Amino acid sequence: MALSDSDSANALTLESVRDSLVRQEDTIIYALIERARFPINSPAYDHSYAKIPGFSGSLLQFLVRETEALQAKAGRFTNPEEHPFFPDDLLPSLVPPFNYTQVLHPPAAFINMNKSIWEMYFDKLIALFAAPGDDGNYASTAASDLVCLQALSRRIHYGKLVAEVKFRESPRDYEPAIRAQDRDALMKLLTFESVEEKVKKRVAKKAMVFGEDVTLDNKEARKGKYKVDPSVVSRLYAEWVMPLTKLVEVEYLLHRLD
Ligand SMILES: O=C(O)C(=O)C[C@]1(C(=O)O)C=C[C@@H](O)C=C1
To answer: What positions does the domain Chorismate mutase occupy (predicted)?
Structure first.
């Protein structure tokens, strides 16, 4: 389900939005598998390594900024599902505008959690699934990081849509907590522990299925050897992806009656 698809945007249900979150798991896990092909390659993140004329920052920051500048001109960030990591100084889209169905409450546009996503990814996550070491593939590594970051960002900000659907389905449950600006009450209302348990199990299973070697001969596949550790993927969701999605949901709901 995409916001660009007006029929399904009108027929928004919690089920259809959850279906999209399930589909996005595939994108995220494949992106992690691709990144795990490279070791950590820390010079890609080292501010003193790149020395790019006219730019101060890491190779990764350079790649993300330049890619976002180009993608902004191609219209990427006119899509309410997309959020830039470096929103300052982006040029407006140069392509004809697409008439996205307005599903979200307008203040949603100001919610951008990418700073927290960036910190989570580099401070915590990367060391859990990339092997230590340096193979010199810094630009390819940074390009893989960007794919991971954009997939995680899209998923986490999808919380805006999840929150909108929850609000539409039971406004009377949410309105008192919104009027009281009570974050804890909102967090309680929007949390479904049984769903979270299923998500954690499913992403671990997907990491096993997608990350197994496929062979045509009768040799036993390398049992228990996956391209990205299923328990890391489960932990990524439990500790960062779902909590950040819920933060987006709370932020969104706090402004739902503005
Ligand atoms: O499915 C929902 O209801 C969501 O809000 C999404 C999500 C998630 O991030 O996967 C977040 C909060 C819920 O507790 C369960 C799952």
So the answer is: 138-249
